[in-house]
Predict the structure.
Amino acid sequence: MPILAGQIAFYYLAAASVASAILAVTRRNPAHSMLWVLALFMHVAGIFLLVGAEFLAGVQVIVYAGAILVFYLFVLMLLDLPREAAGPPFGAHWPLCAAAGLIFAALLWYAREPGLVLTADGSAAGGPPRGSLLAVGTALFTLFALPFEIASLILLAAIVGTVVVAKRKTES
Amino acid sequence: MPPGITFGDFYNILPELVLTAGSLVVLIADVLLPRRSGGWLAWITLIVIGATLASLVPFRETRVEVANGLIAVDQFALFFKVVFLGAAALTVLMSVRYLEIEGASPGEYYFLILCATLGMMIMAGGIDLITIFIGLETMAVSFYILAGFIKPNQRSNEAAVKYFLLGAFSLGILLYGMSLMYGLSGTTNLRVMAMTFAGQESDPRLILAVMLVAAGVGFKIAAVPFHMWAPDVYEGAPTPITAFLSVGSTAASFAMLLRIFLEGLPSMKPEWRVLFEGLAIVTMTVGNLAALTQSNLKRMLAYSSIAHAGYVLIGVVAGTPRGVAAMLIYVLVYAFMQLGAFIVIVLMRRQDIVGDELKDFSGLHVRHPFAAFAMLMFMLSLGGIPPTAGFMGKFWLFGAAIDAGYVWLAVIGVLNSAISLYYYIRIVVFMYVKKETAGSEPTMSPALGIALAVAVIATIALGVYPRLLFELAEASARTLGAAAITTAIR
């Protein structure tokens, strides 16, 4: 990937991440906030992809955009949405939260790695070689093949469990 | 590149394969058999368990690492596997009628019991953090569903939700500790990890890892202060599942605990010894004191099982082969007496009466002398009175503690046993001394009769002739990372 195109992509993703994060915390309707959080997750996944962390990008989409967002949605279902949307957008503790966010940002700035620049092939300097997904997959299907197979049984148990829970009526 | 699973590996995990295939057979048979054939499914499940037990026979002397060192096939795992399968078999026997009364569908139920058993077997054999975790998860997911299996019952729902939420939370803590162990050693294999840590001076980050893993495991064995879920879940879950949970899940978690700490972290022994010492004392004492005031039998047995987890922890503190052997014995003995007590509670279950309140047991010896006698034996055994197996179990546990120089820990254990006698004997008083017989009429079925007889005979026989068991347990304990234990003795 040419460096210029990579940089353009990075700046777009970074700006869009920040923008969707800001939108997510300022929306009055929690459902809208959720959608902006989804956009945030996707853009962050894009940044991971850009620096060659394919596995992290995949995990970001599967775990964050998939599982964690669904958990948030479960909580949303328990809220009284119209009343939430009508109330003040921030709780009473927002200065504390803002301070916590700023301190975290400052920490990140303090701990940043100045040498971390994009190399020609788009992976981070000093990071794992491009194709870390390959490494993960190889380990999964050779060294850890047995637990991988057992995991399928966990899924089967979970599916059976879903059937048990969802079945309308047990025979009576 | 390491190979995946070789043909030799397939042979060595034969029991697990038999159990997996068998559980699928149960699931399919549920669809093929006509409705209301729960009895047949129970027998199929028992055949599967029997076949798995039979397939363990060729591995009596085996000591190998399987599948790139992820699972060990040794006598330590073998001992626990026999305990799990035995507990599963008794659970199935006591479930047949219970499911009919509750009107729950048996196919999924038996499948999940087999699934949980498989998870336990993998936990006991796992010598790699990944395998252990996967096994734990297989067991936990099955139990989350089983705890809430009686859907119309709100308490059952409550039990499932509580167990699921707290279980997921504790699993997170455990994983955090495991990831620290991995990060500090660069490996997930416990035996390699022990070599990496050997000779290193203690690292505060590793101490943090030890604490987190101990907290995660502490939840699973319901050690105080991680025991809050146990009474609610034990009371709400279907009675056979409560029995299986308190025996199987606890035993598997102890196997996991021994694997992680004795095989993986022998270099941290001074640190985790202190930790488990404190846990053991608090767990015994709080469990027993809380049990004193319970009038619901399932709740009382929940607190008593917390106390028993405290006794078993004494063996971890001792940390010697003798201590481990005593733990193995206690786990087996405990399985029979605890399952037996729950079988009697299931006996009391009628269409309209739950039968787990203390008053249901008043005057039981008039209505059903055998059930009352069996309960008497289980209570004496749980309390640790001589002719029963429970006495021998405690005798060896406390003996191992004294051997390792923890005399006062043994003293606290004995004092606690004395406290526990109060609430165990109270049930006996209700059964034999109280005159009113207002409680429910216990109803026997062949399956329940077999289960009860097995539990009673085992509880008495292991108390009268314990020598053989001790030799078996000691041989098993010695295989637990031989190198690890010798370095731990020092």
About this structure: The helical segments of chain A are 3-26, 30-50, 54-77, 81-86, 94-110, 132-141, 145-166. Chain A touches chain B through 25 residues (CB under 8 Å).
